[in-house]
Structure formats: structure tokens, C-alpha cells
Amino acid sequence: MSSFILFDNNYQSHLIICRYNKMTMKVIQRTPQILRSGSRMQFVTIVILELLLLEGIYGWTYHYNSEEMSWQNARRFCQRKYTDMVAIQNAEEIEYLKDALPFARHYYWIGIRKINNTWIWVGTGKPLNKEAENWAKDEPNNEGNSMNEDCVEMYIKRALDAGKWNDIGCNKKKNPLCYKASCSFESCSYNGECIETIGNYTCLCNDGFNGPECEHVEQCSILNAPDNGTMLCNHPNGNFSYDSTCEVHCAPGFTLQGSQSLKCKASAEWTTELPSCKAIQCSPLEDQEQMIMTCSEPLEPFSYNSMCKFSCAEGFELQGSEQLECGATGQWSAAAPHCEAVHCATLEDQEQMIMTCSEPFASFSYNSTCKFSCAEGFELKGSEQLECGATGQWSAATPHCEVVQCENLEKQDQVIMTCSEKFRYSSTCSFSCQDGFALSGESRIECAATGQWTAPVPTCQDIQCATLEDQEQMTMTCSESSAPFSYNSTCKFNCVEGFELQGSEQLECGATGQWSAAAPHCEAIQCATLEDQEEMTMTCSKPFAPFSYNSTCKFNCVEGFELQGSEQLECGATGQWSEAAPHCEAVQCKNLEKQDQVIMTCSEKFRYSSTCSFSCQDGFALSGESRIECAATGQWTAPVPTCQAIQCATLEDQEQMTMTCSESSAPFSYNSTCKFNCVEGFELQGSEQLECGATGQWSAAAPHCEAVQCENLEKQDQVIMTCSEKFRYSSTCSFSCQDGFALSGVSRIECAATGQWTAPVPTCQAVKCGALKIPENGKIHCSHPMDNLRYRSVCNFSCLLNYSLNGSVSLECDSSGQWSSPIPTCEDSNPQAIHENSTPIIISSAVASGISVLTLIAWIVRQLRKKAQGKKFSLLSKETQKASGTYKLNEEV
Questions:
Q1: Long-range own/partner contacts, residues 867-873 (CB < 8 A, 24 or more apart)
Q2: Arithmetic mean of pLDDT, 298-317
Q3: What is the helix (H) or strand (E) element at residue 44, kind and residue range?
Q4: Max Cα separation, the chain?
Q5: How many domains are contained in the chain?
Q6: pLDDT digit string (tens) for 475-518?
Q7: Residue 846: pLDDT band with limits 50, 70, 90
């Protein structure tokens, strides 16, 4: 990308970038001496004008001023005279500015500023993103946050960091660097955003527009109004194109099926399908039994303009309109009619009568039948069934129910009778007797539904008390010599020796036939209850009751106990036992002597069933019974046990480990200790020392030795690694490199006893080839920087205009560090031609007079087009442009 310089006066210079067919041409550099010749200036001006006419040149321009000013004043200068302070958009632009701008003592201001701690491009208001940053080394640094360095300068013609940025205080004095935009309001046909590029602009089209300048609008399919409907459309961008809207309306009697409004989207599709107009539906008319319906339906069943006529079958009457029409609102002209059967007179409910009717159409309608019956205790008088006839008359008179009657009751002697009402259904009569008499029969009877009483009338009999039975041990004296005891009879009672009367001493027979109290009885006198005792058995006789008069009890002791007291007791007539109650005492065993190292624990004082438990002190094991008991014979069940010293398990010798033990009394016995160590290259896994405990267990599990582990080795790029085993003591790893790479470091390392590798893992460095010299009148382009040309690096060579390449176009660095061919040279193919790298272009008057201006221009354009073959400058995606405002250069060979 190059530029034309038109003039330089009043300390102000202009750098103009001109675009045509994605190529630019460098006519002259900014050299004041060249502009002294009027003929030369005239020639350059003619060339520029011709190119403008032939190629349609347009683009933005860079501008700078040689007067130094603060950043704020520099921006005001740029905004007043041009568009704004320059915004750097890509690496190519930086390279251009590095070459095109002259040296300025304090460098140039650019249009970036720190606002709210964020770097912002002031011309666009967009933040600076990482990809577009071009800071010099260690910048921005803000000088330790003390200088408020919120503005940015660009280094031009500086020995170090040329083209890079530095943050600096805004009040410093520097040269302004401005640009004038190529975008205008008309650039993108008012249908998109104009994005500036170097020597060009591109249009980011709004939704619904396309084309290089957003001049085309997206077209949707043409719509036609649906049947029975109309359509009203609005076309802001042309018929049925993006943003066109249409509304569909249906004729009266029709309803819209679908969305009423449609809009043409940016994708050239309508927001929804075209709706249709469907005839409005009235609610369906249901077929009814006994009704005849005849309908005409010109559109759809039961829809707008449908008409239905109605009539009824014989015996039924039409209720409602004889004809209905479906209107434009979806409503019938009247409510749907129906047929009703002819009705008979209403049958009234009667008390005590049950009426069951069949009603197929309506209450008491034609052909309805009713059946009749009576409630329990009532009789039907009249017809059991009636039927509603076609004339609306019942087949017979309405029946009724009458109550059932029972026969009259005759009063009996001594009977008192009370009745509720005149001897008919559900009437009741209650009966009782006069004093001294008892009722024989039911005390209450009722007149049943059958017309019969539920029982005969009862009678009254003389009252008698129950016969008193003679009892053993008791004497009874009564006022009557023998049973039956009639009313007011008395009886007295007494008991024999050793027994007591339980109940009343005298009874009287009352008017109700009940004795004045329950019959008494005689019970044997009780002695004190003898309690059951543990260790003693008691056997008793009970002639009358337990522990009562004449009872005897015998006593024995269980095994291991002896009886203390009488073996037998007797209960006397006074309720006292013949002697005091005996008891049992336990048998005694001899005292036990304690043994050395033995711990003895006993339950009580060495008597029957006493127990003694034994254990040993730490480090000793019991020999004998751990528990003995005092038996019923007075002897212990076993001798007292003894205690023997405890042994731990024998520890086995292990390879790679040494064991040193101290013995307290015997090998591996209680309180013995063993210490452990591993040979070189092995680590102890477990305790360094074990002790034999009191339980016969070692203080920990036996340890073992494992080989020392070195850290895992990570494989490096291009390195071939071969290892003997899993990275442990004495493991080895060998290293080599893939083709084109050389080993840096040792070729073999080993895992040492310390767990460290004997050396670091080596790396493989690409084999480097020698530096290439750029051929005279030629150019070179390499895949890697010139100071890092290594294995598989490729360098392509080309020659300047009018020079031909002699040798290989492309050289590659091979695995041995040698280039695939010698460096080519550029030979002059036309010694008389003007070379492209001649700066400035100086055309003599003799040549100018011999070649017409148009011929010269045509020749320059052809040469530029020839040189530009294979080069393509492409923008980033629209999304990236919006996000960062940066571009990149793609070069295809």
C-alpha cells in the first residue's frame, strides 16, 4: 500500500492513499527537492488525474502538521481541518506510516485515550482490544501510576520500537497525526454502516439489504388476497421487499385463519404463511329424537348462510322456531327448537303411598306409566297402575292408601293396661301388675302391618322369691317351714367353728319377688399368707382355701442351701400358724489364696454359687480356668489358675532390609523391640521400630522396603524417549531426536538412590540453516524470521520490475542444516526501463517528449497489475470489524 504526496507548504504535509482495483501505486516519496521542478510536478499531477478518471480512485487520507501541540489541541486541530485524529486499524497501516511519515523530534499523537481506566479509540468510541494492541516493550506503564499518562504517542523513525506506542501525559507537545474519512452518508446507499479501510471503505449492510454498497433490497414472494378476503400492503422499500407489511381482512360471514399481519423479513421470507378466509361456523345442531330437521348448506355444514327447518313426530309438539338461519356473526337466528310429548295432569304425592313412574320424555308425558303401592301398615284402595294416554288423560282415577286395623283387646284380672291409640297399625299397649303379683307374658305389644298383635295379652301371678339352698358349714332358720317363700317370708343364718359368715345374717322376700339381699355363705378363717422364698420349695394342702383353717405347709431347700426352722406348719381356728416361717441359707466354700501375676475378682464371700474370675498382668497369659464357682457340695469347680509370659509372632528376614532386635526374656516375647533399615536405593514402608505388646501383638504391621521412585518424565516435542521400567531406583531412560532436530543435553539419565534423575530431560532444537542474503534487485519472503531460519523453513525469492530470477524460486532448510539450492540472482531483463525501486522517479524532457502521457500511464497500470497478481487483501469478518476495527493481510503465492 503506497501513497501520493501532492504538496508540502506552510509546515503542513498531506499523505494521500489512492485505491484502484485493490492495488495502490507508490509514485514518489515525500522529498522536497523533487517538487522543485514544475515539469515534474505537472507530470505527476497528470498521472494522478488520469488514474482518477480511468480507475475511480477514492479512499481516506492521512495528514500531519509539523507544529507541536498538546493532545487536546492536536485533536481539535484534526477535527477542525479533517475528520479526527488517526485510528490505527491493522499492522499494514502501521508499516505504511513507519515508512511514509518523516522524523519528528517528539513523535506523533494518535487518536487513543484512556477513559475510565480503559483505552478508547476517540474517533469511533470503541475500546482497544488485545489483537489490535501495538505497545512498545513494558508499555503502557503510566510511570508508576504517578503521571496520569492517559494519551498515546507513536514512535516514527526511532531506532528502537519504531511504529510502536507509548502512553504519556496529555499535556506534552507532539505533532498531530490526522485522517480524513472516505465514508459519506451516501456511501452505503443509506442502508448500512460505512467501515473505513486503508485506501478503501466497506459497507456493513443493515438487515434486509445487500450488494457492495447495500444498494439491493431482499425480495419476498408476491402475495395475492385470499378468496372472500381483501389485502392492504405497505412497501417502504419496493413491492413485496424487505420491511413490506400486508394486512388481510375477510368479507362479512368469513373469519381469518392464520395471522392477520405479515412482514417481509431480512431473510426474504414472510413472517408467516398467507392466511385464508373460512366461512364462519354456527354451533352444530344436534339430531333430536321425535324431531325432523331438514337443512340447506351452500358453503359448509352449519356455516354462514345455512338454513334448517324443523317438525315433530305424531304425539309431540314443536317448542321454538320452525326455521333457523346461520348469520354472519356465527349465531343462529333463534335458539334451537325441540319436541315435547303431550302431558297428562300432575299426580300429587300422597302420604303412605309409593308412586313409581316411567318418564321417557317429560314428567307425566304421553306414554308415561305410574305404579302405586302403600307403605307398611297401609292397604291400596284403587288401581295399581295408571297410563298417560294420547289425549292427555290418565287411564283411571288416582288410588289412595288406608291404615290396617287390629282386633280390640280385653282387660285381664290384676293386669294394668295402657294403650297409645285405637287399635290400628303401629298402636302399642303396655302391661304391669298390681303389688304382690308378677307379669306372665310380654310387657308391651304392637299392632303389626298384618293386622295382628305381636303377642297375646299377658296375665298376673302371685310373687315368689327364689328358693334358698342349704350350705355346708352354715345353719339357716326361716319363718316358713319349707319352700315356696311367698311375699314377706324371713330367714336367719349362722356358721360352724373355724368359719366366718360372709353376707347378711337375715333376708326378707320383697314385693318384687327379690330377697332383700344376696344369699350369704360361710368361708374358712384365713392365716397369714406364707411368701415364696428363693432357694426354698413350699408344698401346702388347702381343704377349704389357700392358707385357711386346717391348711398345712411343708418346706425344703434347693441344692446348695440348708433349712433353718420347722419343716411343717398348720393353720389353726384362730387364724394363727403353728410356728414361725422357716428360711434357707447358702452352703460355704473355703477361702482362695491369690497367685503371682494373677488378678482375681470374686462376686461375694465364698459361698454357694459365688464366682471368681481370673486374668493376668500385662505380658502374661492365663493357664487354667478363667472362672470358677462354689458348688452345692461346698467345693470349688476348679483350682486357681496361673499366669505365663506372652509371645509375639516371629518376624521373618526380608531382602533389602536389616532387622536388629532386643529380647527382654525370650525371643519375640512381651516388651521385646526390633529396629529396621533398608539398603541403598530403597525406602522403608512402615514403622522403623516394633514392640511386642501385652496382647501378643506387635505395635504395628511388619514394615518392608520399596525401591525409591523418581518423578515421572514428560515427553518433550520432537524427543524420542526409551525407558527401562517405571521410573524407580536404577531405572534408565535414553533420548534421541526426530529428523531435523539436534539433542540438547545428555542422551541417557538414571534414577539415583536419592530419588532424583542424574540429569534433566534433554530437549530437541531444530537444526538451523545459515542466514540468506537478499539478492541485489530482488526480494525475499521467509516462513520464519531471518534470525531463526531452521529445519523446514522455506524462503521464496522474487525480483523487482524489469529483473528476471536466475535460480530456484524457493529454498528449503533440510535436516542437515543446508539449504536445498544456492541463493538465486536477479538479472536485468531491460536495462533501458525505469526500475520500480528508483526513488524518486525522474523523467527527462527527452523521454517525456517521446512518450505520450496516456501511453506511459497504460504501461504503469499494466506493470502494477502484473506485480499485484497473487496478492489479495481481505477484511476480517463483519463481526470482528465491529468488535475491534482491525484488519489483517492475507498473502497467497
A1: 867/801, 867/836, 868/22, 868/23, 871/23, 872/22, 873/22, 873/92
A2: 88
A3: helix 38-55
A4: 190
A5: 12
A6: 888 888 777 788 788 899 988 888 888 889 899 988 778 888 98
A7: very low
pLDDT of residue 144: 55
What cell was used for 118? Answer: 480503559
Digit-coded pLDDT (tens) for 146-195: 568 899 999 999 888 999 999 999 999 999 999 887 777 678 888 888 87
- 445 and 458, same domain (yes or no): yes
Question: Do both 147 and 86 map to the same domain?
Answer: yes
Residue with cell 504391621: 701
Q: CB-based contacts of 337: which residues, under 8 Å, 6+ apart?
A: 291, 310, 318, 319, 320, 321, 322, 324
CA 288 to CA 267: how far, in whole Å? 55
**Shared-domain flag, residues 87 and 176:** yes
Question: Does 194 lie in the same domain as 128?
Answer: no
pLDDT range class, residue 676, cuts 50, 70, 90: very high
Pair 176, 123 in one domain: yes
Q: For residue 693, what are the domain limits?
A: 657-707
Q: 110 near 154, Cβ under 8 Å? A: yes
Question: Which of these, 62, 59, 63, lies nearest to 20 by C-alpha position?
Answer: 59
Q: How far is CA 193 from CA 184, 185, 243, 626, 881, in A?
A: 10, 9, 18, 103, 11
Question: For cell 536466475, what's the residue?
Answer: 806
**pLDDT, tens digit, for every residue of 685-705?**
999 999 988 888 899 999 999
Within 13 Å and on the Cβ side, how many CA atoms surround 101?
Answer: 29
Burial 269-281 (b: 16+ CB within 10 A, else e): ebeeebbbbbbbb
Pairwise CA distance, residues 473 & 468, whole Å: 15
Domain end among 279, 300, 330: 279
The reply to whether 202 and 228 lie within a common domain is no
CB atoms within 10 A of CB 649: 11
pLDDT at 19: 31
